[in-house]
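Sanity check record (used in CI):
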Amino acid sequence: MDAQVQIRNRGYGIVVEPLHGLVTARRNGIILAQSTRAKVMYETRLTPAVYFPAEDVTAPLSGHTSLQTFCPFKGTASYRDILLPGDRVQNGVWAYEDAMPEAAAISGYIGFMPGAEAEFDLGRNNVEMPDYGNISGPVIDWLLRDAALVPAPEELTAALAEKLVEQGIHLSRLSVMAWSLHPMIAGKNYIWQRKTGEVTTYAPSYEIHDHPAYQNSPLRHVSNGLGGVRHRLGSCCSDDAFPILEDLRKEGATDYVAMPLRFSDGRINVLTLTSDHPNGFSTANLGLIFECSDVIARYYEIFMQRENAQSLLETYVGRRTGARVLGGEIRRGDGDEIDAAIMFCDLRGSTRLEEELGRQDYIALLNQFFETASTIVHDHGGEVLKFIGDAVLAVFPAGSDPEKARAQALDSARAIIARLEEIAGEEDGHRCEAAIGIAYGRVTYGNVGSRERLDFTVIGQAANIAARLGDYGKTVNHPVVVSCDILSDPSQGIPLGAVSLHNVSQPVTCYALAARTEPQAAAE
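Expected output for DUF427 domain-containing protein:
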């Protein structure tokens, strides 16, 4: 008998048909199940799956394992081990104890996982893969053409939602959770709502992973590779439902789905869909989206890769420098000669601090020092180019206003010293002191290094002098030492005369800066 089902429409679907006569499943010659009531499920794009009534499974099974997976079309699957003499097949069988309406015919039936390596004797049945054809139609056409012109993820989210509504899907809410590579942001969550027609973007920190709301959320389950989530929201939600579903139900939602969006690097992101239609989503509705999900994922991956590249470059080389690298200055020798004030800010007594505090507390102190210096430099218009050991190298480009660049560097130095004093006076605060050198001059701002390993930095006498002035300040016990061309008014500093510096050919006339410690100085 031919048990192949004839597909009557081109929409995604599930069809369950009875198999006639005796059907047997074996593993290495051992009968696992045998029944005259077996069924076959045809699900679009998937290999036909054979299911047996639970009472006709003859192989011993364990109790339910901890594994659960979710299918938006069939429901929640539970798993058991197959217990054969000397052969335990972990999670060898699955069952949908309470399948969705479209798959209700297999509720309580047992299927064998591919890893169980079951061989099926179908008797006189002939089960073959149907010809499903093309079921995506206009949505795929849009994704292949118009979607490529959408410039931002927020706009893509809105356009995708509107296209699905246009195709007859009763969508009240759509969200995409895309994980990122950012030192502070775990990812971006784009949420479209029909009632406003707008997209709201959230950028949660990594603390989201420890938050109870996330721990018991569909986002976590799907991201952990447990498959999709489907809940029809009736008058109330079941006890084991996710808390967010009750919130959505109170807003009028009737159906909720979360399905994976897989990136090419293996990360699993999440697409969620909510309907307020009395009948919720149809299998054809969800199947259409499921068919398109890999293409949708690629668009978001491109957006996130761009954001990741920008955020990582800004994190490691600074905002201005990162923009230049993304703008194409990626070859050795690419760069410009600029006039700039260069600041070298060094943590004093770091060896002693590490011995006194221990490695973990010292690293925390060092991070606090870097955070203090880099935040103040940024707030004063400068850019931190790099951290060198326990020191900060910062640049204040002059552009058309050299006096402003000098003033920004001076104000940054004063504010750093003042803030470190404040931290020392706080509860559990540690006293740490900085040695700061500032010089002004023409430097090369660009790529240097080997062919395979480049560094975007500043090269020039001003950078060298700034580092040496900081070292000299330690010997004369002045926290800030600047070259004479930094001060517009020499009376602002303490003359130190012409000083011979290591690896600087000519003596440098310099001044010590009397750092102001009143609160307003730090805010300048």
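The CA atoms of residues 23 and 35 lie 5 Å apart. If this sentence no longer matches the regenerated tokens, the check is flagged for review.
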